Amino acid sequence: MSPPPFDREDRLIDWLRRRSGQQPGGSPIGDDAAILPAGGPFAITVDHQIAGIHFPPGLDPSVVARRLLAVNLSDLAAMGATPAYAFLALAAPPGFDHRRFFTALLAGCRRHEITLAGGDLARNPERLTASLTLFGTKPEGARWLHRSGAIPGHALWLGGTIGESAAGRMLIERSELKEAIPSLQKAIRRAIRRHLEPRPQLALGLWLGTQREGAAMDVSDGLARDLHRLCKASGAGAEIDAGALPFSERFTKLCAAVGADPLALALGGGEDYVLLFTLPEGIEPPEEQARRIGKIVKGKRVTLLREGSRSLLPDQGWDHLAAS
Amino acid sequence: MSPPPFDREDRLIDWLRRRSGQQPGGSPIGDDAAILPAGGPFAITVDHQIAGIHFPPGLDPSVVARRLLAVNLSDLAAMGATPAYAFLALAAPPGFDHRRFFTALLAGCRRHEITLAGGDLARNPERLTASLTLFGTKPEGARWLHRSGAIPGHALWLGGTIGESAAGRMLIERSELKEAIPSLQKAIRRAIRRHLEPRPQLALGLWLGTQREGAAMDVSDGLARDLHRLCKASGAGAEIDAGALPFSERFTKLCAAVGADPLALALGGGEDYVLLFTLPEGIEPPEEQARRIGKIVKGKRVTLLREGSRSLLPDQGWDHLAAS
Questions:
Q1: Check: CATH 3.90.650.10 for B147-312?
Q2: pTM for this one?
Q3: Which of A119, A248, B27, B92 could crosslink A88 through cysteines, CB 3.0-4.6 Å?
Q4: What is the third-level CATH fold of B9-22+40-137?
Q5: How many angstroms separate the CA of residue B267 from the nearest CA in chain A?
Q6: CA distance B263 to chain A (A)
Q7: A38-71, pLDDT tens digit by residue?
Q8: Torsion of CA B313, B291, B45, B86, to 10 degrees
């Protein structure tokens, strides 16, 4: 039998303090604020996970915790940072299994050598809302990555396959699709896992930080929108080749089975959490899944080459303020 | 006519970047994470404000922004820290006036010389949820304040009046009370303002950091519960004198008019955001409103002297996990 949910905040905090006290220097939890030693510079990111907005309601709290950590780690990967400290703001409905959530969160923190240093707990009657503030440090001799570092002539790269996360979201939302294609159960499970538990490309980000040139960001709101952001920040344009976009074979089969357009999911789906980055021509990243998808050009135009013809790529994707 | 709400996240971010770009070094907003220069040590705190939980639904977004900043600043005050950087996670329902919220938040940041350095925006259909991560630095030659610094023999102090915030919350929730006592309109407005826009005791916290001894925390969950926390952290007990608790005259009159017990509101109400601290006997803080309310004693007992008799003070107050 699982232990009962925490009925008092102080009991949960005591439990957390014991669990997090294994880290060097003991637990920083206990005062009105946590003290971090002098250090830095730091890269700092904040990202939400809200039930029914960023993930389906009723998701296992341990999956929510891993997703929350992963999407924030992906931002640090995009900066070339090594994760160091985390602060959590968690507002949960009655009966939420805090123990399950924190066990997974602390396990993820240990795996990445992150200290969970503080946070705030509250009630939110309808839905779980969580936000994590994550600190990263810069490895010695490396540089921070910025969106603004793209230079005309640079090759444009993606760190891994895209579109599959959006397919996973579609399959979660339209469960009748899942049952319609029994032959693709493994591909379906992969797409859903890709959506729910993204794998931040921290090693790739650290390698990019050792390179003298190049821009980087993570693809969270769809390749089209995020590429526009990178180009705008860099004062440059880009040309990408639809034929070069990396799709997994299981993803294209899945799209065919459910009648989805892989290119549309890749360009506008979002939540891929792979790195989009530029490098001088001739330099290849050490990430096997990375693919060169085009190049940075002068001007402001972002264009897509598809079936021999080139067209403007609209600045479209996932918008956090727009109604769904 | 007020401008329309932001319909796209990128437009809001552009507007924010322009508004926050007045700070030295320009705006840190724009990459996947913000870069903070090497520095510290830092005191870091996170606090929520959720509509219908921490403040009444429908509250003016500028008041929400000021309250969010104030409750976090109060945590830094309790550490003896000078505020430096802020990161925001904001999830708002459709039609929320982001411009009004951010105008007030940025004004508050300017007043306290805080750089709003980053954040994340999302939708939350039912209710506004906001959390702020705030960084403070330690003034040279000063020390951090901790809950664990109370020593038997220390005098126990409160930085200002308590209970009025809880009365303000009661008056908001039971609006019929407001109309029943027309003669006390000014006191009612004061109590409501005290609840909605607390004034963090930053100057007092900084002064306490210059003292060699003493514990500190802010009273957010009621004096009874927070005093138990301070005693537990310090491995000590406390004796307080009900007659010494600082109430404003308008507050006691208000309680009489609505039939509330000022002592119950003071001990269990919460959200006072004044500092609770200890000092060696004979040292007086420079804060005019501060009152000596008792002393730290050996053992674990926390007792209340009331009308000549001493009784155990139960560890009760506002619990963030308990159902309301």
A1: yes
A2: 0.91
A3: A119
A4: 60s Ribosomal Protein L30; Chain: A; (3.30.1330)
A5: 17
A6: 23
A7: 888 999 999 999 999 999 999 999 999 999 999 9
A8: 150
